[in-house]
Amino acid sequence: MDVLQLLTLGTFVALWIAWFTPFIIKRRGNGTKPEVRAPASRWGMFLQGIAFGFASFHHAGWQTFTLPRVTASLIVEAVAVLLSWTSVYALGKQWRLEAALSPDHELIQSGPYAIVRHPIYTSMFCIFVALALMLASWWAAVIGAVIFFIGTEVRVRAEERLLTRRFGSSFEAYRKRVPAYIPGVR
C-alpha cells in the first residue's frame, strides 16, 4: 500500500467517523419513552446491515482505487456527513434508532426534511455508495444495493404507518410533496 492509498483510506475512515458521530452524541429520544413503536423497522436495519456487509467483505482489491472512484466516493461520503448532522439535529429529541413516536412528537418538514422525508436513510445510502465505490466488486455492490433498498423500504413503510396514524392529512400532504429518500424520485 502506498502513501496515497493510506491517505485515501484515512480520509475515508475520518469521514465515516464524522458521519457516525451525530448518532452517538445526540441522545436518542432525549430520555423520553416512545409512546408507540414499529418493531418491523428492525428487520429493515438488519437488511441494511447485510447490504453493508456485501460492500465491505467482498473487496475487489486495490484496482478499485482509481481516481474517479475514489473522488466520487469521498464526495458522496461528504454529502452523507452533511445529511447525518443536519438530519439528526433537525429531529432533535425525536431522533431514535427504530421507528417510534413520543407523546409530543412533531412532524419535521424543515432542513433536509424539506428535500426528502427520510434524509438519514439518504445519508445511509450515500455511505453505502461511498463504501461500494471504494471497496466493492461490481456484483457485490449491485447485490448490496438491492438488499439495502429492500431494508430501507421496510423501514420507510413501518415509519410512515406510524406517521400517517399520528398526523393524518398533514403527513399525507407532506408525502405527496416530498420524495421518500431519493431526491426527485417519488
Give the CATH architecture: Up-down Bundle
Q: For the residues shown, what is the average pLDDT?
A: 88
What is the approximate shape? elongated
Distance between the termini: 43 Å
Largest sheet: 2 strands, antiparallel
Order of secondary-structure elements = HEHHEHHH
Polypeptide structure, described:
The protein is mainly α. The protein has helices at 3-25, 41-57, 67-91, 119-135, 138-167, 169-177; strands spanning 36-37, 100-101. The radius of gyration is 17 Å and the shape is elongated. 32% of the residues are buried.
Observed structural traits:
Four Helix Bundle (Hemerythrin (Met), subunit A), single chain, 186 residues, two-stranded antiparallel ribbon, mainly alpha
Secondary-structure blueprint:
Elements: H1 3-25, E1 36-37, H2 41-57, H3 67-91, E2 100-101, H4 119-135, H5 138-167, H6 169-177
Antiparallel strand pairs: 1-2
Short characterization:
The protein is mostly helical and 186 residues long. It has six helices and two strands; from the N terminus they run αβααβααα.
